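Data card: per-record layout.
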Amino acid sequence: MTARMFPVPERHKGRVYVITGGAKGIGRACAERFAAEGAQVMIADIDEAGADVAEAVGGAFHRTDMSDPGQVRALAAATVARFGRIDIWHNNAFTAVFKPIHEQSLEEFDQITGVGIRGYWMGAKVAVEQMRAQGGKGVIVNTASVQSFVGEKGFSAYQATKGAVLAMTRSLALDHAPDIRAVAIAPGLIATDAIKGIAPDVMDEVIAGIPAGRAAQPEEVAALAAFIASDEADYMSGTAVILDGAYLAIG
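The structure for this 251-residue chain is written out next.
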């Protein structure tokens, strides 16, 4: 896969990029891509492995539980203390438990939505506050999913968060236009550690349902995020960009 090979030099030079869930998978790929394009990167994650990613990209790490509003506010404060501003805030962290609703506990639901709804809302809130304080310009990127649009068995709580992400993205775009843009990315199957536990026969069935015939690489999502957050996409706001190998086109 070649997406990692083609960063746009200095496209994000001078900008400060915050990525939540940045220790691995999509988040790590995004941290690497934005750093390669000149951004100063703050990585947030509950996983301390984010510190190694930060060191590798020349950025900073702030351990953050996105379900805790105080920790989210502390993340914003730490970013400003380190880099002086926030230009791009990328809500990407998630947690999930995949089981039918009658088997899922309220505690599990609260954990999933605590990160995927309240955490995204709080992240957007502190980002907007800072962006307005420093002059009003900025971009909020929210990681949604193809599951924002379709149903899957056993995904009720996770899908509730991803549907909410789309609605929140639209509202953010309207509240703060034209200075602060908000765009969602809706990835399909991505080749991260999260899918490594899937049985080979099950994975073969999943891949067979994707016209592109494969999972996307995290770097492909990162390339899209870097474009969305750039001046080249200045007219893009309040929408979701789908990256799914034509999965949703099947209907």
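Known properties of this structure: Helices lie at 25-36, 50-57, 69-83, 106-133, 156-176, 200-208, 218-228. The longest strand covers residues 180-187.

See the next section for split statistics.
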